Amino acid sequence: MKKAELPDNEAARQKSLESMGILTSDADPELDRITRVAQRIFGSEIVAISLLDNDRQFFKSNINQPTSETPRDISFCGHAILGDKTFVVEDAEHDERFHDSPLVTGIPNVRAYAGVPLTNPDGFKIGALCVVDTQTRHFSEEDLQILEDLGHWAETAIALRYGARTPQQVLDDLDPAKHELLIDPMTRTWNDVGMKEFLHRELINARLKHDSLAIYRFEIDDHERLLQTYGKDTVNRIVQAIASVITSSLRDRDVVGRVDECGFACLMPGVRQEQTSFLGFKLCDTVREQCRFTDMEGEPVRITISVGATWADPDTKLHFKANRILEHAANAMDQAKADGFENVVYRALPAPDQPV
To answer: Which ranges carry the GGDEF domain (predicted)?
Structure first.
């Protein structure tokens, strides 16, 4: 058989697929609904929504597929994701690419296959919606149009459902091997890499839902003096306390992460532009009022932060990458710190043809 080539963007495609959490999430009733409709329309023995992982084809939803996954290198769907249109094989037994495939010579005895590639919000082809028969079959132009329409339904369901998960749900679904890459071990919040991943995800969600997003960078005021006066262990406890109180004060859909030694980033979806600075001051209030420390003599130690803020509209992803937006918020934070303690500076993102 002819093994499907890997897409040119395979590494980025795989990373995007993994970031969705769809590989480890529970069965999805909406995708099951789509496969049931497809079976009723086409009358095929097997209908599936497959996802192409590193070395396996995983069936997220399937009807009569005898296994939950197969090796990727023997999959028909591996060929389907290489194109934009529906991939069709009407007689696999006499097709030189598949005639000796174990999926043809053994169970499930594939003879006819039609699979429409599924594209995720990042623009990567992550799998296929396919109908499979054990008899040869001709697929008409109308058949292919119907299958493509069902594929669009599946893409929409995937985009909305797997973009709507809360940060905690994403964390719960995270492969343990990814924790070190994405999670800050001291605060158990997202790290710099994780926050960039989340901002990228939220910019996609904003465009899908025509929503907006407030982005913040904030840092402990005068942290060098705190470090010199009280030592690293105390400053680490302050950092942990800030992460805890900020996280507990946010909504489920908001995201907070430690992105450097004494600095954090925060994402708040659905915030109006005129609310952005006000919510920055709320972050300051939360830290000042809830992060209370005393020195060795029992005297209170005042802990404050300064905040840099910016705001993204639904079209921002078309112009700016996540790291550039976070850098823009960090520049606003630097200005806030230069002006004194407990300041908030808002900087609008520049026009698309201007540098951030």
So the answer is: 211-349
Angle at 33 between CA 32 and CA 34, to 5 degrees: 90
Q: For 165-189, write each residue's pLDDT tens digit.
A: 778 777 776 667 777 888 999 999 9
Most distant CA pair in the chain: distance in Å?
86
In the block, residue with structure tokens 């830290």: 287
CATH class of 10-163: alpha beta
SS3 at position 58: strand
Note whether 329 and 213 are within 8 A (CB). Answer: no
Architecture of domain 167-346: 2-Layer Sandwich (3.30)
Contact 90, 137 (CB under 8 A): yes
Whether pLDDT at 270 is above 60 = yes
- Looking at residue 40, what is its pLDDT? 96
User: Which of 314, 294, 279 shows the shortest CA–CA distance to 241?
Assistant: 294
The residues of the chain that CATH labels 3.30.450.40 are 10-163
In terms of Cβ atoms closer than 10 Å to its own Cβ (0-12, 13-18, 19+), residue 60 is buried
Retrieve residue 342's tokens.
């407990």
Q: For residue 64, which amino acid is it?
A: N
Q: What is the mean pLDDT of residues 204-227?
A: 89
